[in-house]
Amino acid sequence: MKFRVGVIGGGQLARMMIEPALAMGLEIKVFAENEGSSAALATTQVGDYTKVSEVREFAKTVDVITFDHEHVPLTVLEALEAEGISVQPPSKALKFAQNKLHMRTRLTELGLPMPAWAEIKTADQLEEFISANGGVAILKTPIGGYDGKGVAVVRSASDAAEWLANISDFGGSLLAEQKVDFVRELAQLVARRPNGEIAHWPLVQTVQRDGVCAEVLVPAPKASDDDLARAAKIAETVASGLGVTGVLAVEMFETADGQFFINELAMRPHNSGHFSIEGSVTSQFEQHLRAVLDLPLGSTASVSAHSVMVNLLGVDDANDFVNTYPRALAAHPSAKFHTYGKAARKGRKMGHITVIGDDSIAVLAEARAAASVCLQG
After folding, report:
1. Which of 57-85 are b and which e, b meaning 16 or more Cβ less than 10 Å from the residue's Cβ?
2. By residue range, what is the domain housing residue 354?
3. Residue 214: helix, strand or coil by DSSP?
4. Which of 104, 111, 324, 329 is the most exposed place for a label (fewest CB within 10 A)?
5. What gap in Å lies between CA 211 and CA 148, rounded to an integer?
6. What is the H or E stretch that residue 124 is in?
7. What is the DSSP letter of 87?
């Protein structure tokens, strides 16, 4: 039997699904936004994913539709589902990923730990929320926004004057959240298939720089068995409660007293799970393919005591890191290098490096050193 997977979005996540698809004998096709995308090797159609007619033609060639990103309009997905096309994760789940207010409402109903939050429509409502939460708030646009975009720290409504003046661009509301005094950021990945089977990877710590993930430490340092079990339970509750299929990432804050607060969700393979390509028996990319096809899930056990992933972020508009490979590979033979085939741009995620081993300090040092060679250009 031939299984055919269609991925909407031609970015690096689609690119990293290609290798496990080939290894498993799956047929993988990509609907990309542009020619020459990261996933060009599997791109079979270039078009506009907001147009039902174009996506429908693509969907006719595969058994299941899944995603490299969460931006396909719900109306498009609902139209496909009404025609009997398998969409994984389904539109009923993706609506929570596409609108942070819907997400907060549903997670509140599930009794999950979150910062205090409120829907904001007016300056007075924002001032009231700020006053009730220590004189500061995190303001977010409910739709759009990623890698620190669409997020602002505000201490008065005047700090959000532009957003409030253009609130119709964000669906008529903004999301205000309590500014959590956290000691670190964590991420818990799980995978869930349509029949309800679920599996999770170890809890990881993410290190952010300028609003972008820079490093991932696996497992999260000094996490107790209770911490690991609690984080996994939170993510599994989210996956089941929202009806997610495929890989789900739950990003969380940890406070000094050990509390976890859910920050963001991603219903697709996630930057915090890239380590799993080398660090786990089953990578997040293979697992995502298994899950959306409703195939039995693979083991998420770690193959080594520690893994570290370091993102390679563009430093200018010229260096794509590939030209550093001879020096980097020679100097760091235990590091695994991944490039995303993107045009260079400052701050852009151009690739990543993973190192695994038994000594957490040595693994982190090796990954950073390998990244440093690449950054030298």
Report:
1. ebbeebbbbbbbbbbbbeebbbbbbeeeb
2. 182-375
3. strand
4. 111
5. 5
6. helix 123-132
7. B
Q: Which residue has the tokens 């996956």?
A: 239
Q: Which residues face 246 on adjacent strands?
A: 192
- Going by DSSP bridges, is the β-strand pair 27-32/43-46 parallel, antiparallel, or unpaired? parallel
Do the beta carbons of residue 68 and residue 13 sit within 8 Å?
yes
Whether 278 and 272 have beta carbons less than 8 Å apart is answered as no
Domains identified in the chain, total number: 3
The three-class DSSP label of residue 231 is helix
10 φ, ψ (degrees, to nearest 5): -105, 25
Where residue 341 falls (left for φ over 0; alpha for ψ -120 to 50; beta otherwise) is left
Encoded tokens for 3: 């299984």
Residue 190 falls within a domain, yes or no?
Answer: yes
Residue carrying the six token digits 């205000």: 176
* Residue 146 covered by a domain: yes
Q: At 158, which CATH number?
A: 3.30.1490.20
Residue type, 13: L
Per-residue pLDDT of the chain (377 residues), as tens digits, is 569 999 999 999 999 999 999 999 999 999 999 999 999 999 999 999 999 999 999 999 999 999 999 999 999 999 999 999 999 999 999 999 999 999 999 999 999 999 999 999 999 999 999 999 999 999 999 987 555 568 999 999 999 999 999 999 888 999 999 999 999 999 999 999 999 999 999 999 999 988 789 999 999 999 999 999 999 999 999 999 999 999 999 999 999 999 999 999 999 999 999 999 999 999 999 999 999 999 999 999 999 999 999 999 887 776 667 788 889 899 999 999 999 988 878 888 999 999 999 999 999 999 999 999 987 76
Residues 229 and 163 in one domain: no
Q: What are the beta bridge partners of residue 3? A: none
Q: How far apart are CA 245 and CA 199, in angstroms?
A: 11
Domain CATH number, residue 199? 3.30.470.20
CB atoms near residue 353 (< 10 Å): 26
Report d(CA 197, CA 220) in Å as an integer. 25
- How far is CA 369 from each of CA 7, 333, 363, rounded to the nearest angstrom? 34, 12, 10
Q: Determine if the peptide bond prior to 115 is cis (ω within 30°).
A: no
Residue 156 φ/ψ, nearest 5 degrees = -160, 165
